[in-house]
Design a protein that fits this description.
By secondary structure, this protein is of the alpha/beta class. The chain contains 15 helices and 11 strands.
Length: 405
Amino acid sequence: MAIRFWEIFEETKNQYQLRLLAGKQGMDSVVSWVHMVEDETIISRFGGTELAVTTGMKAGTQGWLLRLVAAMKKTGCAGIIVNTGRYLAAVPQQVTLWCEQQDFPLLEMPWEISVTQLIQDYCMRIMQQTHREEQTGALFARLLLGKEVPDDFFEEIGGRFHLEGTFRIFCMKPVLTPEEKVLFKQAVLKLENVFGLWKNGSKIRFPYFLLELNEVWILTVNDLPEQDVPELTGQIENLFADFFADGRLHLGIGPACQDIRNLKLALSRARTALKMACHMDRKIVDFNQMGFFGILFSSSDPELLKNYADSLLAPIDAYDSRHAASAQPGTGSCPSRPGMGYADTLRAYIENDRSLIRTAEATFTHRNTVNYRIQNMKRLLGSELNTPAELFPYQIAFWIRDMGL
């Protein structure tokens, strides 16, 4: 969990004589770094979540500070500290009102306080927090992999997490160039802001941790209500829209699992959903909505599944291959759609509950042709294809092929 602006502010407001002028509702933002800023043009190079400090050297330029905070807000920065007393006697009222309306944190610090000291202090705190989170993340990674952790680790995180509560995992697998990795990490930091600024500023306060494990980003949320899952999913989709857009990112959502000691199970199911998203080229897959695919994608032996489907459907595959997927005419038949073979007909027959009429409509084929094909397939497959028990293995075989193994 990254360090947030309000944490640093509360710990240092007396030391640096900081005064919050506006934007209190935005103080829960993540702060990734602190920069000295005297020219608004540099903001275009920010990735978001940065905190800026300015002496107001351009105070003589009309509207400069307002343009600066507006550019920072647009980029997703954490806030600004204005060093008043020399170049800028006081923050203009227009800027204060704008920041309050936009929930953008605006702080004032007297000229006598060293800007350099504050920046060094804040950057050091950020690095220390990052180091602590890396250490904690390493232990969480052990839990996720089902490995032992020191007993005192549970005591250490007991004040932050409801250990016996539910844990839901969101797995993201990106495919990135080296340059895109920087942009993705910036989006990850903004994702952490979701947990402070969700629902127009109301704090959801659900404990979470976020880490990268084997090239997959894992977000684990503690006691997240079921009804809030779609909204959090939507937030993730919006933040990473550019990566989702061209298939460079897939998201798998696991079901809620009880107790932190069951994180390995929670991760396994989230990974199953992610596997389906990747293999079937879907942006987002929720394990709770996978149905029988949840069982199929949980298999650790995809070759076994593929061999099962291929062997079961081999007779009609061979027939389609020999006849180049052309229709076999029946009495009064009309041509079927090009490329519609026995395998497609059988799938439609199963999906339409053995109705010849609906199967004919689904395959753009005359009913007599469908009936002829089904009778011929019964002979090829050595099955009457009448009961659910007889059809179910073939439904499974088609699902396996849908997996894209």
